[in-house]
Amino acid sequence: MSERERSFWAWGYTDAFPDEPGRQALAVQVGALLGREFSLRPLPTVESARLPPPRVLPPTSLAPISSAAPKDRILHTYGKGYRDIVRAYRGDFSVAPDWVSFPRSEEDIERLLAHCAAEGIAVIPYGGGTSVVGGVEANVGDRPRGVVSLDMRMLDRVLEIEPVSRSARIQAGATGPVLEEQLAPHGLTLRHFPQSFEFSTLGGWIATRAGGHFATLYTHIDDLVSSVRMITPAGTWASRRLPASGAGPSPDRLALGSEGILGVITEAWVRLQARPRYRASASVTFPHFADGVKACRVLAQSGLYPSNCRLLDRTDALLGGVFVDGGAVLLLAFESADHPLGPSMNRALEITAEAGGVCPEGPVLREDRGEGARAQATYKQSFFRAPYLQSALVSLGVLADTFETACTWDKFEELDFAVHEAVLPALQRALGGGVLARRFTHVYPDGPAPYYTFLGPAREGHELETWATIKDAASRAILASGGTITHHHAVGRVHRPYFRDERPEPFAAALRAAKRAVDPAGIMNPGALFEPEER
Ligand SMILES: Cc1cc2nc3c(=O)[nH]c(=O)nc-3n(C[C@H](O)[C@H](O)[C@H](O)COP(=O)(O)OP(=O)(O)OC[C@H]3O[C@@H](n4cnc5c(N)ncnc54)[C@H](O)[C@@H]3O)c2cc1C
């Protein structure tokens, strides 16, 4: 377990949170973008946190693995979405769980679930707590007598590596860095890098169907899992480890995206890859965003499968501190453990040039010789800072959040138009202005995954209502124009009403029936995916 202290309100470690000069610089940057001045607000202290006393306490048999200490309850109250950070910044921990358990074995989990089922206490599986959709929030309706947060951090080992099939059996509480560190000496990687990699866990990725950093091919955890082990209140759900199977509906597919409502995922066999040796990268600028969209579609349908194909509009690039002389920039990359990538990159640049893209600096081709850690180091530099900055923005009085979707290529233009038509006026009405930036995080042969960031000057004391208005406008626009309510952030509690509109009703009935079968007392994460009273 890490010695470093995690912030009780913001993203990440307290020692990595931007210092005062860093926040001043951010205030200047965001001030220039939003056309007004922002000043530093005082940072909250844990002493000012308000939380109710626990309604129930762990029984003696569970006491050695449990804690009802205020600090532990505070740290397990929220995920890390905008509304979580705002509530924690305000010191509002009114929905804190009654206690937190840290199981060390599957037997501990079985004992905990049996106790909670008998006593009518809700159990919320907790991986890294990086949910941005209220997935770990103890907002569980009126029925449960109490709420336990079940933190998986003690179960973080790579248990077995099977090199012939390039697979590993890994415990669900392993975070990205912890599991990669254990795979590195074997020259292997899971190669799953969500932006929350530093804290999110294998179990959380499976439970939310996480999407990794790579733009194409094996980037979703769905494709990297070959079997799952889950402890449900009704018994152990363990699938067989197979490369593929046509034996009826897949038990893994039901565990994937189950968001803690069926049971606790304890381990999984995952498919590994050799660490990449060859890399190629290039930046391509387009006069208009639409030109970049066209290039991405042709690239996604070309069979080249770039590892990165991240199209940023001008505002999105500016948010990352990059000025683009045009309407969009495409960050293009390939990587392989097996073969040099010059030909793939050259063909990709022909495609982007046909769509009007220019790559003045040309591609960069690299070959790593046994420097397995480099992928992670590069990833760290470019990716780890961003979440810290989002929390820092809250402390400057900036409303900043993201939302994401996926749609087919034929619907993208209409969806993008509808999102702008809905969000910009909502920002104007609520905050007197703001900006909306967009990018593609993933591209598929049949459509992109657009990802939007909105920012505006928050109205102090009204942050949550304003956020809800903008989020609702964006979500409705997305659903009305053929997108999904989430491409990789999951449903949780925040997307629940929109998920209801997206899913077929017979499927919802089947899922509710599956939950009743494995969780007859209805204790597993009530309120995620379904209304708490929906059973
Ligand atoms: C800054 C930031 C960047 C992010 N970037 C990405 C990204 O690039 N891609 C992406 O997909 N998501 C991203 N997310 C969202 C989030 O990180 C993912 O949903 C992630 O998969 C959650 O993992 P976790 O371990 O933190 O799970 P938690 O947040 O702890 O839990 C999420 C849900 O899974 C359930 N759960 C957790 N562990 C288990 C288990 N062992 N068994 C059963 N249920 C469990 C919980 O009950 C909850 O419903 C980001 C979030 C933040 C804050």
TrEMBL record:
Q: Source organism's superkingdom?
A: Bacteria
Please name the Pfam families in this protein's record. FAD-oxidase_C, FAD_binding_4
Which keywords belong to this entry? FAD, Flavoprotein
Q: Where is the FAD-binding PCMH-type domain?
A: 92-275
Q: Give the protein family.
A: Belongs to the FAD-binding oxidoreductase/transferase type 4 family.
Entry keyword Flavoprotein: yes
Identify the InterPro entries for this entry: Alkyl-DHAP_Synthase (IPR025650), FAD-bd_oxidored_4_C (IPR004113), FAD-bd_PCMH (IPR016166), FAD-bd_PCMH-like_sf (IPR036318), FAD-bd_PCMH_sub1 (IPR016167), FAD-bd_PCMH_sub2 (IPR016169), FAD-linked_Oxase-like_C (IPR016164), Oxid_FAD_bind_N (IPR006094)
Q: Which GO terms describe its biological process?
A: lipid biosynthetic process
The keyword Isomerase is annotated on this UniProt entry? no
**What protein name is recorded for this chain?**
FAD-binding oxidoreductase
Cofactor(s) this protein cannot do without: FAD
Extract one GO molecular function annotation from the record: alkylglycerone-phosphate synthase activity
**At what residues does the UniProt record annotate the site feature described as Important for enzyme activity?**
R310
Q: Which residues form the signal peptide?
A: none
- Alphabetized PROSITE patterns for the sequence: FAD_PCMH
Please list the residues that make up the active site: Y451
- Protein residues bound to FAD: P125, Y126, G127, G128, G129, T130, S131, E259, G260, I261, L262, G263, V264, I265
